[in-house]
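Researcher: Here's the sequence for the chain we discussed earlier.
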Amino acid sequence: GADPEVKTISSGNTVARLSLATSENWKDRDGQRQERTEWHRVVLWGKQAELAGKYLSKGRQIYIEGRLQTRSWDDQQGQKRYTTEIVANTIQFLSNGDSSRAHSPNTAGGGSDDFGSHDFGPEPKFDTDEDIPF
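Model: Thanks. This is the structure I predict for it:
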């Protein structure tokens, strides 16, 4: 992943976009360990976006709850493009298998600097020049 991208939009709201990796481990029929990593786009609004910009960085572990949202736009070549994102309504910063609620929609707070990290492989390349609102 990368550090969150945070900006203030014309309405004055703060929005953050980040990539989140989730991994699944299992043993196949031959007993060999397998792993699959999926990358997810996450959008945070308001105070959560501000706190993500302040406390989150690449490799830090977080817990997210939210809803899926798919949106579309026309790219510069006029082709229809789609993306599905998690619009977060709850975020927790995790540390060493422990979780402490950093903030929720009604709570604000800081995070610990003692976060675990994991190598999830290369992050997928997103079109960062896309001219779309969050």
